[in-house]
Specification:
This protein has five helices and nine strands. By secondary structure, the chain is an alpha+beta fold.
Length: 158
């Protein structure tokens, strides 16, 4: 197997709204414990992370409200779409995340679910909620950056 195929990642779901709603302070890659029908459904891209969040409970990391649609050919062995799923991380990392998440206004949110070398991973972030004026400022900054790029694109040339 070549190195190019080993490092290739396939993104199944992204939480684009998280970048608008939260200020991302830190990210961490964690694994996720899934059933067979969940894996098959995820590989079809039938996962939604929009309302999902993570929480440390009993020394373990859990993912709540991540919607993984039932697998169409799963019959009676199908899973509950909104069940709580265990996230896999080292004990030290879980303790550090719990400490960061316990700060005022901070929470743990999944940013993206992807495949790395045949294993489904979740990019988990420690985030702080943005205020309304922060969101407006971020939109204005993005629009200004886009205008600058558009202006320099046409002024610099042969």
């Amino acid at each position: 197997m070549s190195q190019a195929t080993e490092t290739r990642e396939r993104t199944y779901a992204t939480n684009r709204r998280a970048f608008h709603e939260y200020l991302i302070l830190e990210t961490l890659e964690v694994g996720i414990a899934l059933t067979g029908t969940e894996i098959k459904s995820i590989r079809e891209g039938r996962v939604n992370l929009r309302e999902a969040y993570a929480r440390v409970e009993g020394g373990e990391l859990w993912l709540h409200n991540a919607h993984i649609s039932p697998y169409e050919a799963g019959n009676r062995y199908n899973h509950d779409p909104l069940r709580t799923r265990r996230l896999l991380a080292h004990t030290r990392e879980i303790g550090r995340l719990a400490g960061r998440a316990s700060e005022a206004g901070c929470t743990l949110i999944p940013l993206r679910m992807y495949d790395r070398r045949g294993h489904v991973k979740v990019a988990l972030a420690v985030a702080r909620g943005k205020r309304q004026y922060d969101k407006r400022a971020a939109l204005a900054e993005r629009d200004a950056r886009r205008e600058i790029e558009r202006a320099t694109k046409y002024t610099i040339g042969p």
